[in-house]
Amino acid sequence: MPKITYIEQNGTEHAVDAEEGVSVMEAAVKNMVPGIDADCGGACACATCHVYVDDAWAGKIGKPEAMEESMLDFAYEPKENSRLSCQLKITSELDGLIVRLPEFQG
Q1: 66: pLDDT strictly greater than 80
Q2: 55-64 own/partner pairs: CB under 8 Å, 24+ apart
Q3: Domain limits, the chain
Q4: Which of 51, 58, 63, 76 is deepest in the core (most CB within 10 A)?
Q5: CA atoms within 13 A on the CB side of 86
Q6: What confidence score (pLDDT) does residue 106 get?
Q7: What is the pTM of this model?
Q8: Which residues have a Cβ under 8 Å from the Cβ of 69 and sit 6 or more positions away?
């Protein structure tokens, strides 16, 4: 199982083993990682699963599609490495992925 590390604003780390095929958001919710609200349940209809992808992983996750790009406008303090974790599907290639959580969700 790929390991995903979520880092809270205060530096607290949550490393979880995640099933391939689920989203980074689903893995966080299933493992009760604080800071990912996921209000829309993964429908890309809100920005409450916003994360900052560690720079080392930018090339492996690709760019957001248009719908995600639009929803990121509602995220709290979006940055160039902002993504909605509901749109990031976990594969074996993402083993070791690091995402940081914003101070607040949008």
Answers
A1: yes
A2: 55/81, 56/98, 57/94, 57/97, 57/98, 60/93, 60/94, 60/97, 61/88, 61/94, 61/97
A3: 3-100
A4: 51
A5: 20
A6: 76
A7: 0.95
A8: none
Sequential DSSP letters for the chain: --EEEEE-TTS-EEEEE--TTSBHHHHHHHTT-TT---TTSSSSSSSTTEEEE-GGGHHHH-PPPHHHHHHHTTSSS--TTEEEGGG-B--GGGTT-EEE--SS--
Residue 36: pLDDT band by 50, 70, 90 thresholds?
A: very high
pLDDT of residue 68: 97
Whether the per-residue pLDDT at 56 is higher than 90: the answer is yes
Q: Token pair of 36, please?
A: 């990912």
DSSP-derived letter for residue 41 is: S
CA distance 28 to 49: 9
